[in-house]
Amino acid sequence: MSIYDRLNEPQRKAVFTTEGPVLILAGAGSGKTSVITHRIAHLIDDCGINSYNILAITFTNKAAKEMRERVDSLVGYGADAAWIMTFHSACVRILRRYIDRLGYGNNFSIYDTDDQKSVMKDVCKRLEVDTKIYKEKALLSQISAAKDELLKPDDLYQSASGNYNKMRVAEVYREYQEQLKKNNAVDFDDIINLTVELFEKDSEVLDYYQERFKYIMVDEYQDTNTAQFRLIYLLARKSGNLCVVGDDDQSIYKFRGANIMNILNFEQYFKDVSVIKLEQNYRSTQNILDAANSVIRNNTGRKDKSLWTAAVGGSKIFFNIYENGYQEAEGIAADINERISEGFGYNDCAVLYRTNAQSRALEERFLQYNIPYRIYGGINFYARKEIKDILAYLKTVDNAGDDLSVRRILNVPKRGIGTTSMDRIQGYAYDREISFYEALKAAKEIPSIGKAAAKAAPFVELIEGLRAKTGESSVKELIVEVIERTGYIDYLEDNDSPEVVEERRQNIDELISKAVSYEQSVDEPALSGFLEEVALVADIDSLDENNNTVSLMTLHSAKGLEFPVVYMAGMEDGLFPSYMSLSSGDISDLEEERRLCYVGITRAKERLVLSAARMRMIRGETQMNRASRFTDEIPKEYIASSVQSGSGRALRKDDYFSLPPRKPGQIAFKSFQKEAALSGIFDKKELAAEAGGPGYGEGDRVKHMKFGEGTVRDIKTGGRDYEVTVEFDTAGVKKMFASFAKLTKI
DNA sequence: GCCATTTCCCTTTTT
DNA sequence: GGGAAATGGC
To answer: Measured between alpha carbons, how far is residue A88 from residues A57, A83, A117, A440, A641 in Å?
Structure first.
């Protein structure tokens, strides 16, 4: 009896094919984590490979942790030296050792999204960029997109070929990058890109890691972007022993730069690839799997595969339509209570939604129904003000070159150093090409800041005092000292209501316990190590299956997880699939949403409940949407409507299937429609629109919000929506869904 | 320099 | 509808 007996034939092949490039196409619930962990065990136990030579890459810390635990339990203690970690933590580890070769200090800071925004704001001010026209966020996302593709500012500049806007973005990118370097800081993308740069520039370092990592495995391979692919390619090039595991049907991170070609073209990038398909699903019942398959079937250009399960039948899928989002939340809460009375635990249930904002209504009802829950995602714990403040103190102690952190806390709590003094200190620093903190130390020399100079001295003393203690004090002690010496709690009490203060105190306590558990879990705890861990965690990493709470999260966060009972809330066109994907004019955006739907459905083991609301308040506007087109793609025989026990009336599915398609030109949603509907105006307008037919026809000139003006070339009336083909004057030919494109006749 | 009010932007998803 | 940032008065 061996540990491999429980594997099926393809799984075994995946485990035992250790040499050369291997592509494992692993459908949802096909036991891919088992395969990777057993493969590592096989390498160590049977092939005599030193665990030191193994690298296994995941996307989330949670996946890494789980994999580490499973490997350890399979191999005992022989697996210690293997690297089982996320892309980001592996790269940070490499950079901590070698980033000085790129001109950074090894104690670099890691900037999160908020930090990036602050830097960008500064950059725009310096370059006199009008942030009304070029939004910081938009600039950052363009830069991030460039980084995903390994493009440098110069590359961007050249590819602009004279286009003023693009050249401007390239300039901003260059300045942004310089500022980061000046602060001795890197952003999330840099973590990957600088590692690639290091490998490409320094053959000594590359050799070292190529020699070390003779066996490389990559999980969730379909989500890798160009930079990550390059990284893996560089590392694996020498040994050729690269095993990637992925599922093109679960690729849902195109917006983050994931390049689906990495998986579709893997066999072109590497020679003599062994391709192994894992198609047996061990997770869901037949009904759930059939529904998932019938949805994903509508996508084009997939790798051919078909999931099957030995678990026949199972209960039908439920689909409930409610009047509004509140009733939907109530219906879900009521359904959960019924499950609990049947013997399910709260932790067996998860509610999945498309956008974080949807959690609010659910949260309210769950409180009302006394359902214990936990929301994952949304505002990151480490993005909270009080946490960021304290971390900024620690970062300043750790890396005084991090101007951003110093500036954040110089006047928090208030020290009477306002924006004017702050700007003057900054100016002084620029002139002398020194850091903000160094300028602060020399505050007496700055003539223009007057009294503020004296106020800066105690701050500098505080930081220096803390720095002197980093060797002997624990991270916990440092945090406590920051709080006590700054009077941080008093500061909170002066500014916030008692409830908010209490909440912030609890968060600070949680930070302290995180520091303690960090110090217990690491061999050589250090301040920089703690800051690094803190920068790279995602909320979902803290999901603990043993907590008896219902999990609420986005569909994206749910990838890789499974639950006996899954609710998919907000199944409405415009919400899921998102409005953006419907109006972009790019069918592949819709296909990504469909994959997301597939991911959601395949999370469910036993019971899947879909729901939609006729009316929903989004951003203070009431929207009225038809049910999601994805629900149409599930054959009726798999669907039932559950009995409604709450106050909301669940409609029969036929009610919804007979909804009329929206006509071209008809406005999808506007806040005034709610009032108009109440006064009856709306109804008349809608009738008028329907009687009058499409608001435009073939040959008409129309205007689109994003693409400008164009001519309608074709209108297809097939199906429930209208597919309009428009030839735009500047943007080219686009196909789009009439109900969402908001085309107006001109 | 500080505080209150107004304005803005947001919401697609995140390591 | 809500939270953060900008603005303007003191």
So the answer is: 9, 12, 20, 33, 44
